[in-house]
Amino acid sequence: MTAGRGSSDVMRGADIVGQGLVPARAGRAIEPGEVIHVVGAAGAGASAAALLAWAAGARVSGCDPAAPSPYTAALAARSITVASSHDAAHVAGEAGLRPSRLAVSKALTAVRPDHPELEAARRAGITLEPWQQVVADAAVTHGGRLVAVAGTHGKSTSAGWLVHLLEAAGRDPAAFVGALLPERLAGVPAATARWGRGDVFVVEADEYAGNFDPYRPSLAIVLNADWDHPDVFHDRGAVVDAIEAWLRAPGERDRHVVLNVDDMGAAELADRLVDWGDRVTRVASASEAGPDVRYRVEGNRLSMIGLPGQGRVECTAELRLVGAHNAANAACVASAAALLGVDGSAIAGSLTSFEGVGRRLEVRGEPAGILVIDDYGHHPTAIRATIAAVRERFPDRPLWVAHEPLTFHRAAAMRDELASALATADHVVIADIWAGRDPDTTITSAASLAAAVAALRGDEVAAPGSVEATADHLAHRVAEGDIVLTMGGGRSYAIADRLVALLSTRTAG
Fold this sequence. Notes:
By secondary structure, the protein is of the alpha/beta class. It is about 35% helix and about 20% strand.
């Protein structure tokens, strides 16, 4: 993967993406009975903000035209109302309860900073904040030690892994994770938040447009620092700059960071933090000279030496999650857990028992002998690693990838890298691009990406249209023994769900 090359056609900057929102601040406790309205509450992160604010004692409502979604069932179970449209009337609040603040997804401010609901809040003097600020405030209300998991790739899996490990060790953590946690961790139904009573609060910390700025952790994990979000980062160096600035922000005086220095961006960050001394724990594979924690992986067996507090005792675990990237992430999670005082035997057992989080190599079914797997992968590095992991697990089965590109700006700026990664599958289908926070949907197309993949492969690559049309296209072409991997950050899961349903009728017939 190249270091990246930003494009003036897609770059806008964090100030434009989040215009109209108040600047990030250190977290402060949520007042009992405080009224908070969450705009965009059907999303993975915003729904977690609503859940955590409710658990912290606030009165919470939400709205989102995307409701219902996989994330709103947990809100409904707690009687948190999510309206299926935006409306300026929400500023008045239900039953005359006027919100003290609106927590907003930047997916809205990026395209509609003048949205009537937001404008009504401004006229009423109601604070507009990113939903991450509410999560940070909930963490302060909770009072646990804040642990943040950052990096371009692998945040959700690794944050979920740490929550799983801490829960198994009896620490009962609270958390925000950007993917559905299993019901055993989140309660029923599955959710992206957990309100534990223990001494740790885990957050997934996203670098996009200052999203992680409200979080002031005492311990951070940085899994990697790759070029992404070309609308706000010109290249990998800009990503590293943002992460360094976040780590150096005022807050915990003795902040500690765990870095995967096998990654070029994280290694650069380690060099920049040389003044931190032993507050940096460097994790690397056995081939890397001089890390604090050294790991090696053989098949699914992970072995680590140098975990904090464990001396030279080797810690080994049989991982259920495949792929070299998951082994590296597990070593970072283990290092953080050791710094939190979890002993080596408990770490090894929990690394072994973790089965993943939602939409990360999640098996959705195997109707008609066709295995359907869904994954959130949308960046070239993640796509390539995920395809390699599936190949490792199922080396003899033909692999189809149905990819829904996430955002037009990413698809335009990274077209060649995306095409190269997707071309490693046996068959490729491209669904319509999920616009997300894009104001301009004319800069590229699914057909353009399909043509780039076809040029590398020398065969036809279809772009059938919507996620529903993509599922229909696949249903007529896949055969027993095939694997279908659906990938993307928008509604690509709908490809998997519809395909399983269609193939199930084939089985029934």
